[in-house]
Amino acid sequence: MSGKSSFFADVNRSFNRAATHLNYPKGLLDQVRACNSVYQTQFPVRMPGGKFKVVSAWRVEHSQHRLPTKGGIRYSHLVNADEVKALAALMTYKCAIVEVPFGGGKGGVKISTTKFNTEQLEAITRRYTAELIKKNFIGPGVDVPAPDYGTGEREMSWIMDTYATFHPGRIDAQACVTGKPVSQGGIRGRREATGLGVYFGTREVLNDTQLMKRIGLEPGLEGKTFVVQGLGNVGYFAAKFLSESGCKLVGISEREGTLANPNGLNLEDVMAHRRETGSVENFPGAKFNEDPSEALYVDCDILVPAALERQITSENADRIKAKVIAEGANGPTSANGEDMLHEAGKIVIPDLFLNAGGVTVSYFEWLKNLSHVRFGRMDRRLQERRGLDVVNAVEELTGKKVSATLQAEITHGADEQDVVRSGLEDTMVGAYEQIVEQILSNNEIKSLRTAAFTVAIDKVAKSYLELGVFP
């Protein structure tokens, strides 16, 4: 679904609302809002039968107040310049919210991945990377891509290999891209990072007593019903962690349609059914609707739109029954649609906060690639030995044996995934505290999105001032 205004215009509308709460010169705000660099390229791809198809692609560096810029690469037949600019802008504000030292960037390749085989996709990816290299739009200290819709670890590995081929002997070549396989310099915990960030952020909002009182919900996740639109990495892991926290999954949608069951759906059973049949249709005990957007209208406490942007607009916002809309995707709610949700007394947890788990853990991967040290390698055994010393001391003082289960918990040393998840949780909790602090300090700010944008713009503007660009 789409509204009348462009996606980038919607992002700037949110920016403008937040900017009124800040005391910065217009010229500085104009600089923060503008895209610094936009690169568009076209290149040919050989198709079956010897024919060629010309592929259009973009890379946008929205803000270079900090380098490198950072943002995913999207493969979709719907990609256009406006979308890539909007997503790059959101990355700038997202990075600022969670305090990772990047500017915002984004890439897009206008293809339908189902119409190309693996060899063709590899050729497209490597050619796109070569185009970025030629224009200096990729590099560990310049611009660092990551996966997005239509791309994953495989494509990131091709990008890294192409970059390394063009830069032989460069010791930090692995840091040119994140979201790689662990064997190629990736980090444990990256795959689930965005979905886990959605869980952490939603948990913080649902534990906010004042916000829950406003919408008539008891604080906490336990017993809340939720729906997830989209079963990609973000949607799946968000559903997994919310389910494990005591929430009940009552609706799911994928491209083939929507499943709903007010008594609850078992996520893993649905995933197994889809792997076996290629569809969520005919899942036992659930109602199926061939329209994927029907998931948006299922009665629930929490709706997690985790597919594409602009799914909730002024055309359908009045049909949303959920009290909390947790934006797992980038820009799933249009500006006009969000206005209607607020008027209906609902809470929207904004994407520039909630979707930031991916870039947070990408930052950890980038650091790992630059340092060439796996997280946990230096002190895991030390932690285990010290934990065992504590157990031995307790047993000696009390004369009682500590159970094997408790001993294992106490003596467990943090491995890479433990460190990553801990860092992500701390980041999401800290970011939400800053958003709440902004609301508490300004009675005129009514929405979490405006508060989040205000925090982000303030940080980016201060960076420009510190650079001496605006004396």
Write up what this structure looks like:
This protein has 16 helices and twelve strands. 45% of the residues lie in helices and 14% in strands. The radius of gyration is 23 Å and the shape is globular. The strands form two sheets. Strands 9-8-7-6-10-11-12 form a seven-stranded mixed β-sheet. A five-stranded mixed β-sheet has the order 1-2-4-3-5. Strand 6, helix 8 (233-244) and strand 7 form a beta-alpha-beta unit. The protein has 471 residues and is an alpha/beta fold. The longest helix has 26 residues, at 416-441. Helix 1 (7-19) packs across helix 16 and helix 6 (193-206) packs across helix 12. Among the domains are: 35-184, Leucine Dehydrogenase, chain A, domain 1 (Rossmann fold); 193-354, Rossmann fold (3-Layer(aba) Sandwich), CATH 3.40.50.720.
What would the average pLDDT be, to the nearest integer? 91
Low-confidence stretches: none
Secondary structure: helix percent: 40-55%
Assign the CATH superfamily of the domain at 193-354.
NAD(P)-binding Rossmann-like Domain
Shape call: globular
Q: Span between N and C termini?
A: 44 Å
